[in-house]
């Protein structure tokens, strides 16, 4: 497994010793040592998964970085969230993925009304296995715990991802005030219940 380290809140250092890592295409800002960069089509998904991602509009490009040395990646000075996984899975917004270990498996799954409501598309990405996942966020990400006794409600535009045994529902808050334009402006939310962690950013996508 490669070593991920935050050089700063906006710059990720990945150390390779003859290993490979998947990074967002164009995210490399510097490297030292002997490195090779190749565009990745399958990205750990297999052919069917890659086709689902393209058909579903999950149009982010990945590259495989291999060799020995250090590579630094960033995305438009956005802050970076690191999530280590141990034989686990993260559901993550495709437009937030920055990097993950090459041995992990990624897939594209249906996001339903959440994706449609936030303009992010009808599909989202899962990354599964043991290793590191890095995402970029608009502002410092928050990790909010979900327990069976305390469900969590999140604005779809602020949602980044989640891990654990979490159930997701789309909740409408429609009443007569909403219909006449006197609501709070938050007419729908995501409800998370069960047990796990939900990651959000302190900003809404536009």
Just give the CATH class.
Answer: Alpha Beta
According to CATH, what is the topology? Double-stranded beta-helix
Biggest beta sheet summary: 12 strands, antiparallel
- Share of residues in strands: over 45%
Superfamily at the CATH H level?
Answer: Mitochondrial biogenesis AIM24
Helical run tally: 3
Structural class: mainly beta
Q: How would you characterize the overall build of this protein?
A:
The protein is 10% helix and 58% strand. Strands 1, 2, 3, 4, 5, 6, 7, 8, 9, 10, 11 and 12 form a twelve-stranded antiparallel sheet that branches. The radius of gyration is 18 Å and the shape is elongated. The model is unreliable at 115-121 and 176-180 (pLDDT under 50). With 206 residues, it is mostly beta strands. It has one domain (3-200): 4-Layer Sandwich (Double-stranded beta-helix). The protein has helices at residues 46-55, 113-118, 176-179, and strands spanning 3-8, 11-24, 28-40, 62-73, 79-92, 97-101, 105-110, 123-137, 142-146, 152-154, 159-172, 188-200. It has three helices and twelve strands; from the N terminus they run βββαββββαββββαβ.
């Amino acid at each position: 497994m490669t070593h991920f380290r935050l050089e700063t809140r906006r710059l990720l250092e990945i150390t390779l010793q003859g290993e490979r890592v998947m990074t967002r295409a164009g995210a490399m800002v510097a490297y030292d040592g002997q490195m090779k960069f190749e565009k990745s089509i399958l990205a750990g998904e297999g052919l069917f998964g890659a086709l689902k991602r393209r058909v579903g509009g999950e149009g982010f490009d990945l590259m495989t970085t291999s060799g020995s040395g250090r590579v630094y990646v960033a995305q438009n000075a956005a802050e970076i969230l690191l999530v280590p996984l141990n034989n686990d899975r993260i559901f993550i917004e495709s437009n937030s993925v920055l990097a993950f270990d090459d041995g992990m498996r990624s897939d594209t799954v249906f996001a339903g009304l959440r994706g449609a409501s936030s303009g992010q598309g009808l599909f989202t990405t899962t990354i599964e296995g043991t290793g590191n996942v890095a995402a970029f966020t608009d502002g410092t990400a928050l990790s909010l715990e979900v327990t069976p006794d305390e469900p969590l409600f999140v604005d779809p535009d602020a949602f980044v991802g989640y891990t654990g045994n979490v159930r997701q529902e789309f909740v409408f808050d429609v009443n007569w005030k909403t219909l006449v334009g006197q609501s709070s402006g938050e007419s729908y939310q995501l409800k998370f219940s069960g047990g796990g962690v939900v990651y959000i950013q302190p900003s809404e996508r536009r």
